[in-house]
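Q: What would this complex look like in 3D?
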Amino acid sequence: MADLSIEEANKIRASMGMAPLPVPGAAAPPPSSRQTKTGDDSDDEPASTVETRQAAAHDNWQKLQDEQAAAKKKADRLEAIKKEREKASRFAKLKGQGLADIEDEDDMAWLKGSKKRAKKIAKAEQMERELEERERQAREAMQYTESDLAGVKVGHEAGQFDDEDQILVLKDTAVDGEDDDELEAVSLREKERLQEKLDSKKRKRAYDPNDEEGQTSILAQYDEEIDGKKRKAFTLDGQGRTVEDVQAEAAGVSKPKRVAISLDILNDDKPSNDYMDISEVKMKKPKKKKSKASKRQRVADEDDMFAGADEPADEMEVDDGMTVAAKPRKKKISEDQSFIDDDDLQATLAKQRREALKKRRKTKPEDIARQLREEAASPPQSPDVMDSTELLEPTIEVDPELVIDETTEFVQNLDVKSIEQEEARKRQRRATSRVSNGTDTVGVGEVDEEGDVDMGYAEVAEAEERSNSRARSTGIAEPGIEAEKTLDQGMGAALGLLRQRGMWSSEGVDKNASYRDRQKFLADKQRAEESAERLRKEQRERERHSARWATMTAREREEWSRKNNVNADQMESRKLADIFNKEYKPNIDLNYVDEHGRHLNQKEAFKMLSHQFHGKGSGNTKTKKHLDKIAGEKRKLAENSLDTTTGGLGNAHDGLAKKRAAAGIRMQ
Amino acid sequence: MILVTVNDRLGTKAQIPCMASDPVKVFKAMVAAKIGRPVHEIMLKRQGERPFHDQLSLADYGVSHGVQIDLELNTGD
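A: Here is my prediction, written as structure tokens for the whole assembly.
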């Protein structure tokens, strides 16, 4: 602390005309008159006034300095003493001989003493070893094993110790308590306490009607309060078991059943084979068919056999070409098989159709050629057959009988080509017969077709009939159903087709009329507007040229024209309103179209709007049904209504029936 | 005589011997000699109070032995 020294301060004070500060070392300044005065009234206490205090200040300061100096001196002295003592103690340790001191002994003496020294060292080592050994034994004796724990009580249930390790500590008890030591796990105890707390929060009922086991004692809910809590505890017996266990075993209490856990799950980790082991596969023996089915099977078999037996004979006979194989069976069925229920009938028919189709496809050109040849040489047929041919199609011409059923219709629809072939064949044959008039086959041919030798009008009629039949066969002749129009014949045909299918109705006439009305109304309106405009223009022109207009200022002109405009507007709008009231007939048609582009009827539209409003559509099944329906409609639109290749006659029948809103179609 | 400590809390601290009856002006002169700053730049005040006036004495401000006085820069305001 580099303070301002008093001398310097005094210099400054002197320069400023102040009294110098008293210098401690120097003699006290001569007492002022005031000081002497204060010294006079000595009965006053020494520091009663500022002046006396200020006068005593120097003395006080001096005293303080002295005290400080004395304290410092004392501390220095104490320090010195301490240092001296330390120094003395430091040197006190170094007693005895130093290396330099031993030096005076000679080598001989050292050698002599070496043996003694060695012995001494060995003795010390042995001592040390013995000591170690003793210590080790003591330590071993001290080791704490589970046998030391025999008879110690543990304040938990054995089941409470799960797989995790628990640290057991001695339970807190009173020092003078006569209880034995008891071990407890702190964490488990905590858990118990928590559980107790939770239990106490629950409302306990004295009577539990749902209690299954009967109460053991009366007022059992107070047992705990009277007897105190039952503590669960077990005692260790020092051999890894509990005393209670051993006792229970001795008493023969049956242990709770252990659950056996299979360790096979450990083997399941290996990846399973995607393919089944062949030893595991079991083939199910096909069961014998029921008697009914087998019976039917047998019938079919018999048919086959019969047909197989017949065929060669038929071929040998010069009867007819195409339906040789199918015919006898058909006959047979119609003759001797009586059908009890419709299902059987349908099944049989379906089967026959399949067979027939197969057979039909199998006919090869060579066969036809051969048949031609055979027919060329065949004898004439009986006239009764001819009658039937006139009624029916050429396929069944040669049949001795007339059978009309679904099958015939089906077959007839199938072989358009073959029919034509046959006809061509017949024509050819006739031509040959006509040319070679003299041979005996000529008469045969004539009789065969007409039952008449004469070829005049009959020939023409027959030709006509043939052409008719061909036309019918190309248009799929169906009595009672007109041939369907096709789209390649122009607009009219297309409209006809649409009308036929009920996709378009002629009520559009009304729409046309209304449309025309509307257009007329619009035109009228426009015409009225135009005429009004024209009128206004003319009037404006007239005004512009009038004398009055010339005299008006610009502002007046503007005002004038505005007034005129307003008037004209009013007039015009009134006129338009009149037209509106008179002629305008709105044609409102609410059309709802779904996402598939179909027009919805009222019911469907309501359903759709409802679904939209509720934000919830139909379920899966309904939606699927709906989609199926739409798909069906589309398909129906796409196909020919009389097309039998896809749906057959039944389909056409359905379509027609639906179209006409009748239960069936009338066949003529 | 009393010892008065002058501290500007910025690293300048000095102990000045003086009399309690000294005017502040004289004290300032001594402080100026000690810390090497002109007298008109020195402003003395007790902590949290208004600055000392030159005409009054240290005793008027209750400055006694061992008292610490704040030293600030007098900007003339």
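A: To summarize the key features: Chain A has a mean pLDDT of 73. The radius of gyration of chain A is 68 Å.
Q: Very helpful, thank you.
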